[in-house]
Amino acid sequence: MLRNDPKYISKLQEEVNVLRELRGHDNVIRLYDVFCVDNELFIITELGRGGDLFHLLTTHPKHGVTEAYAAKTVSEMLSAVAFLHSRSICHRDLKLENWVLESGKDVWSPLKLIDFGLSTHYRSGERLTRVVGSSYYVAPEVLKKSYTEACDLWSLGVIVYMLLSGAPPFYGKNDEAIKASIVQGEYTFPHELFRDVSEDAMAFVSTLLMYTIEYRYTASQALTHSWLEKNCDQDALQRSKDGARGAGIMIDSSSSRPEPMQL
């Protein structure tokens, strides 16, 4: 039910406009239609039949997934995030639950990024200040209320760490303890969790879980890392790189950005 609340309406408009702008990327959930009936808003998207990565990881044998699967998964994530950032959109809530598999019959089917409720457009050089995101995944600079789109890469670093080990890099007995651990920014690669993980994979994680954002890899930089080159199918990796720069994606408008939709 649509509420007569300007902030609520503005948030819905931003989510719909982001989905419209990102339409066409292989690793972003596709928006098909938006309409109102009897003061209720319906957002129609494609269906991710395979469920989310959190479900996959929690039903998988302990200590995470194989490096080949993690690399394939991460290359698709990076492709989507690089495309978002090329359109000056920051997701701000990247987590295992917000990546779904296209097919319920093949775990190697394409990933789709969902849930753009916290996404926002940003200006180059602008610092965002609103504290949003999910425990475990939120970047330290977000908790300090001064951040950029680089917060998305930190969240991806947490996701890769969890895919490889089955556990989060930062933890605590409650939300406050988890956030304190994140702000401190210290993490390790325990042998019992990473004994079968390559040094190259751990080095890749470290490029994303870089506390100083100036040294943190961008999505496009991460797509060129040697760990992905060694563990991904080369054709698939090239498709991810092409998707990152929007190659072959049809823009819905003659302008570079579709006109905002008004609700």
What does this structure look like?
This protein is mainly alpha-helical. The chain has a single domain, classed as Orthogonal Bundle (Transferase(Phosphotransferase), domain 1), CATH 1.10.510.10. The chain is built from eleven helices and six strands. It has helices spanning 6-21, 53-58, 67-86, 140-143, 151-165, 175-184, 191-194, 199-208, 219-222, 226-231, 234-244; strands at 31-37, 40-45, 89-90, 99-101, 111-113, 120-121. The two termini are 13 Å apart.
Helix content: 40-55%
How large is the radius of gyration?
A: 18 Å
What's the overall average pLDDT, rounded? 91
Biggest beta-sheet profile: 2 strands, antiparallel
How many strand units? 6
Number of helices in the DSSP assignment:
11
Runs in which pLDDT lies below 50 for 5 or more consecutive residues are none
Number of domains: 1
Q: Which strands sit side by side, in order, in the main sheet?
A: 1-2
CATH class: Mainly Alpha
N- to C-terminal distance: 13 Å
Order of helices and strands: HEEHHEEEEHHHHHHHH
- Strand proportion, as a percent range, falls in 5-15%
Write the CATH homologous superfamily: Transferase(Phosphotransferase) domain 1
Quaternary structure type? single chain
CATH topology: Transferase(Phosphotransferase), domain 1
CATH architecture: Orthogonal Bundle
Note the overall shape: globular
